[in-house]
Design brief:
The complex is a heterodimer of chains A (438) and B (171). Chain A folds into two domains: 159 residues, Rossmann fold (3-Layer(aba) Sandwich); 269 residues, TolB, C-terminal domain (Neuraminidase, 6 Propeller). In chain A, 12% of the residues lie in helices and 43% in strands. In chain A, the strands form eight sheets. In chain A, strands 3, 4, 5, 6, 7, 8 and 9 form a seven-stranded mixed β-sheet that branches. In chain A, strands 12-11-10-33 form a four-stranded antiparallel β-sheet, with no helix packed on it. In chain A, strands 13-14-15-16 form a four-stranded antiparallel β-sheet, with no helix packed on it. In chain A, α2 packs across α4. Chain A starts with a helix and ends with a strand. A four-stranded mixed β-sheet of chain B has the order 1-4-2-3. The longest helix of chain B is centred in the last third of the chain and has 21 residues. Chain B is an alpha+beta fold and 171 residues long. Chain B has six helices and four strands, in the order αααβαβαβαβ. Chain B has a domain of 106 residues: OmpA-like domain (60s Ribosomal Protein L30, Chain: A, 2-Layer Sandwich). In chain B, β2, α5 and β3 form a beta-alpha-beta unit. Helix content of chain B is 44%, strand content 14%. The chains are: A mainly beta (438), B alpha+beta (171). At the A-B interface, β17 of A face α5 and β3 of B.
Chain lengths: 438, 171
């Protein structure tokens, strides 16, 4: 597994095309994807009548997850030769080869009361063999979307050799009202915009939430007192408490340490903004920067040893990396314009950022030494990148121009492909993508 | 505008404010007829130089900044001179200074930028004799625009520091 992961990384670095290989089925995700891999999903078999509707819903969602990556293309059922109506029947490989389905996903669904059981198998059509063993997921009927996401994650993972990201959630700021009277609430959603739940009301301005590494807690900036302070929210109980932070006029920009026990954040005092590290349990804080400039938007490396952050110590916003204990920092951004909101990738190899140049905003990525900068988007205002758990996709916010301007969430591959909006009932900003759920 | 003109103008404003200041107690020094007791609206109106309304509208509760700067302009300092005099005269009032930014910037950077702007105002007011203990600063970054267009005409109004006065406690 590790070898496969490393091979995918190497392929990413070498930036070749995506290839559906002539040997065993393998989609190697690389930069210039040419052709999505065709797959077929015959309707999952309903093992009892109560399962009919949910079996159909799960089938459609598995297909939507995979197609939504831009890496896979669903072959419509209208051209199927085989019905494959039973989960246990022998696969007629020739029939699937004939319509050029390279991957075949089959499943069965049973409902007993509120209990739901989903089984799935994945076949490499051209090799004429099953990929991995069958899998079974059990849960409750109202959790059917998660089960579909788990099936899609397993298929994605087996075909690409990389981790999935469909069974994950995003915490974000839900927005309503006009620009000069905007109401903001913390909310949580599935990665695809489904199951929106509000975590706070709109009585106090809230900004920039961040998920804990395990997705059980959220740090965010609250203006409940009129002065920015850092709050910690428990997702299960929706209980919040204000964190004790270093003395200062304002505290904001909080992020969890990789073990979830500490918070890296900014404090402003006398117009000077610096980065601190605090212990969540004890409230004790250590100052990490001391320049008389704005140091904020910290992001820890996956191994927890380094922090990438933004600073205008050079005169404009740029990206810097320092030790997680503070000290000297080295600048990594040197292109035209200003760079902010750096976020270290889960794999550790890239930093996503917001770039402002010539009146436009971009989401981009660069290597941690600042090389190979690539801009993935461009618009009036793109901001706040966050990584999918597998490091393949970046979600961000896009705000439209003018008096009626609104914010919404978008996602894009780190190749710059597959830019698309996340469909939500209200405006949305400041996404933070949580981990793959257990 | 030359320095001398500005100085003359400031002098004129001060002099005018001095001349038009009404008697706060409305009694003109003599016994006030009970039938003409002043209403509370007169006491707090824009014409009363000790009213919050006078502070907000006549003196001006906000100063503006150029793009990505926190340097006070000459016009800004003139407004702050008026704020400082008002705050010294009206010692019961406390001030929260809010820094704001336009939408052309990232959210957290703009919080820092607003903090710089608010502190530039606070420091100036302190230099003019307003006790630091009567002021607190905060920043809303780009979260509270007062103009909503995406053009410089609106941005210029949104890049501001607002001095919000109240008799309430600061804590």
């Amino acid at each position: 597994m590790l070898k496969r992961f490393l091979m995918a990384l190497v392929a990413l670095v070498l930036a070749g095309p995506v290839m559906a290989q002539s040997g065993p089925l393998r989609l190697t995700i690389t930069d210039g994807v040419i052709e999505p891999l065709p797959f077929a999903v015959p309707g999952f078999q309903a093992e009892n009548t109560e399962a009919a509707q949910v079996a159909s819903d799960i089938t459609r969602l598995v297909a939507a997850d995979l197609s939504g990556t831009g890496l896979f293309r669903e072959i419509p059922a209208s051209v199927f030769i085989s019905a494959h109506s039973s989960f246990t029947q022998t696969v007629a490989y020739a029939d699937w080869r004939a319509i050029n389905a390279q991957a075949l996903i089959t499943g069965a669904v049973m409902v007993a009361g509120n209990q739901l059981v989903v089984k799935f198998r994945l076949y490499d059509v051209f090799s004429g063999s099953e990929m991995g063993g069958g899998l079974q997921f059990a849960g409750t009927v109202d959790g059917w979307r998660r089960m579909a996401h788990k099936v899609a994650d397993a298929a994605y993972s087996r075909i690409t050799g990389e981790g999935g990201y469909f069974d994950s959630r995003v915490v974000f700021v839900s927005e309503t009202g006009p620009k000069n009277e905007r109401q903001k609430r913390l909310a949580i959603m599935d990665y695809d915009g489904a199951n929106v739940q509000f975590l706070t009301d709109s009585t106090a301005l809230v900004l920039a939430p961040r998920f804990s590494p395990t997705g059980d807690r959220v740090l965010y900036t609250s203006f409940v007192s009129g002065f920015p302070r850092i709050n910690l929210l428990d997702v299960a109980t929706v209980g919040t408490r204000q964190l004790q932070t270093a003395d200062g006029e304002m505290a904001f920009s909080p992020r969890f340490s990789r073990d979830g026990s500490q918070v890296i954040y900014s404090v402003s005092n006398g117009g000077n903004t610096d980065i601190y590290r605090g212990d969540i349990a004890s409230g004790a804080s250590t100052r990490l920067t001391s320049a008389p400039s704005i140091e904020t938007a910290p992001s820890l490396s996956p191994d927890g040893t380094q922090i990438v952050f933004e600073s205008d110590r050079s005169g404009t916003q740029q990206l810097y990396i320092m030790s997680a204990n503070g000290g000297d920092a080295r600048r990594i951004s040197f292109g035209d314009g200003r760079y902010g909101t750096p976020v270290w990738s889960p794999r550790g190899d890239l930093v996503a950022f917001t770039k402002q140049n010539a009146g436009r905003f971009h989401i981009g990525v660069m290597r941690t030494d600042g090389s190979e900068e690539r801009l993935l988007t461009a618009s009036f205002l793109d901001e706040s990148p966050t990584w999918s758990p597998n490091g393949r996709v970046i979600m961000f916010m896009r705000e439209t121009q003018g008096a009626g301007g609104t914010s919404s969430l978008y996602s894009v591959d780190i190749s710059g492909r597959n830019l698309k909006p996340v469909t939500l009932p209200n405006g949305a900003s400041d996404p933070s993508w949580g981990p793959l759920q257990p | 505008m030359t320095f001398l003109t500005k100085a003359a103008l400031i002098g004129l404003i001060v002099a005018t404010a001095g001349c038009t200041r009404p008697d706060r107690f409305g009694a003109g020094g003599g016994a006030a007829p009970t039938t003409t007791a002043p209403s509370s609206t007169e006491l707090t109106g824009v014409n009363d130089p000790n009213s919050p309304l006078y502070f907000n509208q006549t003196i001006g509760d906000r100063v503006l900044f150029a793009v990505d700067t926190s340097t006070l302009t000459a016009q800004g300092k003139m407004i702050l001179d008026g704020q400082a005099r008002w705050l010294q005269t009206n010692a019961d009032y406390l001030a929260i200074i809010e820094g704001h930014a336009d939408e052309q910037g990232t959210r957290e950077y703009n919080l820092g930028l607003g903090s710089r702007r608010a502190n530039a105002v606070r420091e100036y007011l302190v230099s003019k004799g307003v006790p630091a203990s009567r002021m607190r600063v905060t920043s809303y970054g780009k979260e509270r625009p007062i103009q909503v267009c995406s053009q410089e005409s609106c941005y210029a109004q949104n890049r501001r520091a607002m001095t919000v006065i109240s008799i309430a406690s600061l804590s």
